[in-house]
Sequence to fold (195 residues):
Amino acid sequence: MFTMKFSVIVSMSLTYLFGAFASNLTTDAVVPVSGTNMGSIQLPNGDTRLYYQDQHNGSIIEMVISNAFTIGVFEESAVLVPSSQVRSNSPVAVSLVADGDTFIQVHTFFFSPENVLSQYYWDDVLGIQGGPNCLTCVTNKGFVGVAGSQMLYAMASSATSPPTLRVGFVSAGAPNTISEAVNTGSGWSVASLST
Fold:
């Protein structure tokens, strides 16, 4: 009888104890994300920005996370690029311009529905810039990528003043190689990889 009472008490205690642990696991809910392609950057202070194309509405979403997932938390998300300006299943590439511990610009690149290499960016002075009427964006140059291509990369170097931005893609004008749109501060130009 003593053994039976002891096992019932232990069983109830373990249920209570592990039940409490299990309920704590649900206090940190996962953040639902339904994306196709994504890019990310880490700011000098450790903050993370993720950019992905929402698979339901086609817009590009910016997510703000306070640090690496192991120690950071989701803070907010918002539409950066409206779906009307993004090709379905567009790749997304992101680059960061920083000066020491200060981030100056975050650039997000993608393809428009017409396969035009496109850009939105955040600037520490100007705020968000982008869209078909953005005069400083690569979008304004009309560089066309190969329809359906998933090849896209972005780099930024703060070693030069002003910073250099480089965006690689497969151009409709040179479909058998990689082309690169480059901005060294005096506007965008494009060149294909050559020997």
The CA atoms of residues 138 and 188 lie 6 Å apart. Residues 1-26 have pLDDT under 50 and may be disordered.
